[in-house]
Specification:
Elements (H helix, E strand, L loop, with lengths): L12 H19 L8 H11 L6 H12 L4 H23 L8 E2 L2 E2 L1 H5 L1 H20 L9 H12 L4 H11 L6 H26 L4 H28 L2 H4 L5 H4 L5 H5 L1 H18 L8 H12 L3
Antiparallel strand pairs: 1-2
Helix pairs in contact: 1-3, 1-4, 2-6, 3-4, 3-9, 3-15, 4-6, 4-9, 7-9, 8-9, 9-10, 10-14, 10-15, 14-15
Bound molecules: geranylgeranyl diphosphate.
Amino acid sequence: MASPAHRAPSFDLDRFIRTTTAAVDACLDRLLPKATRKPATIHKSMRYSLFAGGKRMRPAVCLAAAEACGGRQAAALPWAAAVECIHTYSLIHDDLPAMDNDDFRRGKPTNHKVYGEGIAILAGDALLTQAFEIAAHAPETKRHRLKAFLRELAHASGSLQLIAGQVADLEGEGRRISSKELKYIHERKTSALLCCSARLGGMSANCTPAQLNALTSFGYNVGLAFQVIDDILDVTQSTEKLGKTAGKDTASGKATYPSIVGLDKSRKIARQLTDRAFAALKPFGKRGAALESLASYLLNRDH
Ligand code: GRG
């Protein structure tokens, strides 16, 4: 039998992504201050990056995880929106001259190129804060209290995960790093927020501890695979296709999976990780179809 990573799922993923993206966009539009609200510059800047055309993969994972646990997408929506705010903040800050110094993101000029560095820093800060304001209004469940949800968000975006990954990334630039160090970076920079998205979706559906463990394993493995694929795409795709500067990792002397283990081995690692993510979905049966299809799409994506 072919490895599950090669299986073509029958699930209508295009439709799922279209509907989850529309729902998350509407939720964000409703919850964020309007672009005209004073001080308008900051709200325009926040909305510029938030609605610049991101793939909305973390929200999709969050909503699919809720479905896997028998929950409703509506209950997971605030968490999907909060995670996307945190993700967008991290991209704005990552693009700043003091970090990756990038001019192009989501197919558009980066936030600081349009609004200037000061406003871009503040837009990132405001989006991070906005995530917690959205979270504070979200409903809790019987098994999972609001403080547990907040702890998830804070931990994934704090100095032990997202920020730790970025610190290690900055400190690793121009230096030969081991595959163990690279994994440390990818686990924190990328996997942590994807894992958090899956967990929050499950928690919004009042998931059991066993379901939460399964979602943790799914999110961790899909998150790592996502970054390995991102590394591969950086050297195999064009700037137009990616909507961000291609070849940036090599140009900035950044260690990546292809630079350490080569392209073929990187592809093999991504497939192995995705197979582990599939294995984690077993307890969900048919309800895990959306998550399975998303994992397969993320492995085979070209942008
Ligand atoms: C806290 C400043 C700061 C950074 C944290 C997330 C991060 C570390 C940096 C952002 C840049 C980067 C390469 C992150 C790794 C995760 C990743 C590949 C993000 C891009 O995610 P996509 O492809 O982006 O889902 P879209 O635009 O589609 O949402």
